[in-house]
Task: inverse folding
């Protein structure tokens, strides 16, 4: 195979404007965090019933997608699909960027973000949350090393080994993220081992959707490279398979819960009677975020068209957000079952659906995390040889020969 | 290929494009600067904690020294005696520990609350106080990443206010909605019940009183002016009144199926 040439992104106006916009959003997010920290969470929509709000939705989305984005690199290094090798560096860079963005939101939403160092020096090793601290920081180190070996000629022979290690680590990391919810025995909407594989499936579809969207934007912004039609179609079909996998795990999780009479209430709430939650689940995740994108990526009329594949990717991202909102917020909105079979009321909202209206600072903090991830990616492609000059050498050559 | 903005362009000159494994000198310098900046940031960020760890003591040292490790402090609540509309236990806890109702039930802390329970089939109604159940296997302590939530050797579950980072994972894990997050700045705190914005708190079983050999404020108040529905004592001492009553009566714990073995028992529920 021809040697792949990588170079820094060109300095085009689009890139600078986009970077400035992202930087502004990061500053807005930081300001929101300061506002929340100064006044307390009273200025958010969160309360003692919904303790994790919109920032967690954004953060979990980013963390899950971060591990999924690495899949592009894994396809080349672990599974030997050399077609995807030119994507490996951007894949690694973006996975670090998204994880840093997500973690930043999580940290800034803490009640005491100033005690971050406590979280890094005082551990309860029985806590899956504490494990995740190691999984996240470890991921950044390992993927960083993965990038370095890819960029250092004398170390390139280690790419396969480091890539395999990173792949295994990312599977464990997403398992850990899913288990944050899956191991909560007290809440009927969670407490399911199925959440870990569901999060892994979600990471694949969200990661690829973000990767495709980013590449299409970078292609437009840099103007000197573009994904070939063959590659677009391949990526589109791969996205379709990942969407179907996510739907499968969602279906299995809900069917498992529906089969249990004890969980009928929470399923009825999330899927039928819960107002915003069924709307987001069926309308946002299933129809807009899964079925329509699947049609776009599988139908030959659309799946070679970069606009249509880009649209499908954006819809998958929106559907993923809706899905995580239902899991995180909807799961908390359904009341704890402290007295099974009884009708319960109290001054503390026992037995009642917990209400939550996201506030502007929460939204801005969440968007700030996304902007930080985008900014890191843009700075990365600007100063490091991340993007390949000719992106689809093999496919173009094959097409020409054919 | 040429760039539109030559002054700010960092593209490698044509003819010397970096290939696999090569980095330009500019990038090398940038990397060194980045590592330097990262090191400086880490030093600044870690300094407060290192200082705290140097001057601070271990977790709840004073309390650990005065407790009885063989005890398992618990409560027995006789639901039949718990009066409808009576909230003496709640008022006593508020007064003792310094939390109050500010008219915002969704964000106000509630260390103890009266819950009305109705059997939809029989129509039977009961009222009972619910607070931290001081589990033997507390899920809050299991999930707490920093170890701020912990169980003392005598079974009292507490939050170390110096270690709590306000992640609220314990609130997600608690099966009893027993924990509250402090949503805004507080004033007029009790010195023995420190509370702080951005941290989580819950019933301490009046640990400051227990360590002095007294009973929790809610139990004292219930017995003085309420229905006499609450009993406090050492569940591990077979000679204690509470242990005898638990052995005699058919009592239950909330959600016993979860296996967390709460230290609060209810009769006639």
Result:
């Amino acid at each position: 195979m021809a040697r792949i040439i990588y170079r820094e992104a060109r300095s085009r106006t689009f890139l600078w404007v986009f970077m400035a916009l992202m930087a502004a959003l990061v500053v807005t997010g930081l300001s929101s965090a300061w506002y929340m920290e100064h006044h307390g969470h009273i200025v958010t929509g969160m309360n003692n019933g919904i303790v994790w709000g919109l920032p967690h939705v954004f953060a979990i989305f980013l963390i899950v997608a971060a591990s999924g984005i690495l899949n592009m690199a894994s396809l080349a290094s672990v599974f030997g699909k050399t077609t995807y090798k030119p994507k490996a560096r951007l894949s690694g860079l973006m996975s670090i960027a998204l994880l840093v963005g997500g973690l930043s939101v999580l940290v800034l939403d803490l009640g005491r973000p100033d005690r971050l160092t406590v979280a890094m020096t005082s551990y309860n090793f029985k806590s899956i949350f504490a494990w995740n601290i190691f999984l996240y920081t470890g991921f950044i180190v390992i993927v960083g090393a993965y990038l370095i070996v890819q960029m250092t000629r004398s170390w390139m022979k280690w790419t396969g080994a480091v890539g395999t290690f990173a792949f295994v680590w990312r599977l464990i990391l997403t398992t850990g993220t899913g288990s944050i919810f899956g191991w909560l025995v007290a809440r009927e909407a969670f407490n399911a081992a199925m959440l870990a594989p569901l999060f892994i499936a979600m990471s694949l579809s969200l990661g690829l959707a973000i990767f495709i969207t980013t590449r299409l934007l970078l292609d437009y912004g840099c103007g000197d490279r573009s994904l070939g039609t063959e590659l677009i179609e391949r990526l589109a079909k791969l996205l379709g398979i990942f969407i179907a996998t996510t739907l499968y795990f969602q279906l299995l999780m809900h069917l498992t819960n529906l089969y249990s009479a004890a969980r009928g209430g929470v399923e009825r709430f999330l899927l039928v009677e819960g107002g915003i939650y069924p709307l987001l689940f069926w309308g946002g995740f299933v129809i807009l975020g899964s079925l329509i994108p699947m049609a776009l990526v599988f139908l030959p009329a659309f799946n070679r068209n970069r606009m249509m594949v880009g649209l499908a990717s954006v819809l998958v991202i929106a559907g993923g957000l809706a899905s995580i909102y239902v899991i995180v917020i909807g799961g908390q909105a359904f009341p704890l079952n402290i007295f099974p079979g009884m009708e319960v009321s109290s001054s503390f909202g026992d037995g009642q659906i917990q209400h939550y209206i996201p506030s502007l600072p929460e939204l801005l903090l969440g968007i700030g995390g996304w902007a930080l991830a985008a900014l890191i990616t843009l700075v990365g492609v600007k100063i490091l040889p991340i993007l390949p000059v000719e992106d689809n050498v093999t496919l173009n050559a094959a097409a020409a020969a054919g | 290929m040429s760039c539109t903005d030559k002054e700010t362009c960092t593209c490698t000159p044509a003819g010397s494009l970096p290939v696999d494994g090569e980095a330009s000198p500019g990038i090398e310098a940038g990397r060194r600067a980045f590592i330097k900046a990262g090191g400086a940031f880490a030093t600044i960020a870690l300094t407060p904690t290192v200082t705290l760890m140097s001057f601070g003591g271990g977790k709840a040292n004073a309390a650990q020294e005065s407790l009885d490790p063989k005890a398992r402090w618990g409560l027995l609540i006789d639901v039949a005696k718990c009066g409808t509309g009576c909230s003496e236990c709640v008022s006593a806890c508020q007064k003792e520990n310094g939390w109050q109702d500010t008219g915002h039930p969704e964000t106000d802390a509630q260390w103890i609350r009266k819950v009305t329970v109705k059997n939809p089939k029989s129509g039977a109604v009961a009222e009972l106080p619910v607070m931290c159940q001081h589990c033997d296997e507390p899920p809050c302590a299991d999930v707490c990443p920093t170890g701020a939530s912990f169980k003392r050797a005598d079974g009292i579950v507490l939050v170390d206010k110096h270690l709590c980072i306000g992640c609220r994972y314990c609130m997600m894990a608690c099966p009893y909605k027993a924990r509250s997050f402090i949503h805004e700045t507080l004033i007029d705190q009790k010195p023995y019940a420190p509370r702080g914005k951005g941290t989580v708190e819950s019933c301490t079983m009046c640990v400051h009183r227990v360590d002095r050999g007294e009973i929790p404020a809610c139990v004292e108040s219930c017995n003085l002016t309420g229905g006499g529905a609450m009993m406090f004592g050492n569940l591990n001492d077979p000679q204690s009144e509470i242990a005898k009553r638990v052995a005699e009566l058919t009592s239950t714990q909330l959600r016993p199926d979860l296996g967390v073995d709460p230290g609060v028992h209810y009769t006639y529920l």
Observations:
- The two ends of chain A are 17 Å apart (CA to CA).
- The CA atoms of residues 97 and 373 of chain A lie 5 Å apart.
